[in-house]
Amino acid sequence: MILVTGGAGFIGSHTCVELLNSGYDTVVLDNLCNSHIKSLERVERITGKKPVFIKADVRDREVLDRVFSTYDIECVIHFAGLKAVGESVAKPMEYFDNNLNSSLVLCDVMKKHGVKALVFSSSATVYSGDNEMPLYETSRTGNCTNPYGWTKYMSEQIFKALCTADPDMSVVLLRYFNPIGAHESGLIGEDPQGIPNNLLPYVAQTAVGRRERVTVHGNDYPTPDGTGVRDYIHVVDLARAHLCAVSYAVSHKGCDVFNIGTGRGSSVLDVIKAFSRACGKDVPYVIGPRRPGDLATVYADCTKAKEVLGFETKYDLEKMCIDAWNWQKNNPNGFAD
Ligand code: NAD
Ligand code: WQD
User: DSSP readout, 202-247?
Assistant: First the structure.
């Protein structure tokens, strides 16, 4: 049995599909603070299997204790956390409390129950902004520009220290780049609340008519077309990376870290053009000023994940946009429809 914290969310729900399709039983623990229970009903529709669901906060030690007593947990995938960069600047204590205390309580309860394998959702945001590209797992980390980034950086430190203290412990830190796209069924996908902070959901909501136009945050960067370049990865590829990580975590000891991206960069205009092709109409945009804190170019070197985890991506930007559009057009208002 795999315990999936935050399993009702965007990446968690797609990972549940891959886990269930691969024969793993899953328990999802999620407080639904940024997700909808419908995502798990859709997971059941896709897979024909029902994940066990517990509505609770990962910081609730008693509930967690009961979960580990009730189910034979082989490995935990810890997705639960708050993730909005801007909100973390406005509400730092909420972010430190949620993201750090959930990691601490989880580790403590795992230790009590002798569960030794964990996969953690880290982020490319832990890399310092002054690195050369591509980013390697050995590139400089720290100098985070917002509390959210620090919670990922600090959680990594907590997990590393835990593995040093307990040589039987196994933690796989996955540093995700920019996950986008949706399951190709169009039944699950990204459903941000309010105005999207991230590029792809903003483009998708513009294409479906919920927003007037996309603002491109700067076209004077030192990149081929002047707009920011990122390493977008299809969420189903990312979900599959978790299967590799679980296999690795249960068969190795110690703490290891992997970049999970495609190793290819795409600009904001590349994304808008690919999405326009996917939806069959031009997505309107205007050029605006740079967004404070943004880097010109961010992409991963993914050699380590390929060589050590045996993980490779399958899908390109076209497919990411086709699947994101399929989800958006079938669910213009997300799971609220
Ligand atoms: P999401 O918000 O869709 O999913 C997170 C889930 O965790 C939600 O279902 C939410 O309800 C739940 N949750 C939050 N705090 C909780 C708590 N204390 N107890 C129980 N449940 C709680 O986000 P996502 O995009 O699926 O991201 C999953 C993880 O990956 C997060 O840790 C995020 O920081 C990390 N990550 C995301 C991205 C990205 O761009 N989406 C990139 C890098 C890393
Ligand atoms: C991508 C590009 C923008 C919106 C963030 C977090 C990071 C990680 C992923 C969790 C940039 C441009 C965006 C818009 C635009 N999350 N853009 N118009 O900034 O790479 O990463 O999400 O760990 O921590 O910081 O992703 O999607 O916000 O931006 O022009 O309306 O699109 O400037 O170049 P980012 P993003």
Answer: HHHHHHTTSSS-EEEE-S-SSSTTSS-EE-EEEHHHHHHHHHHHHH
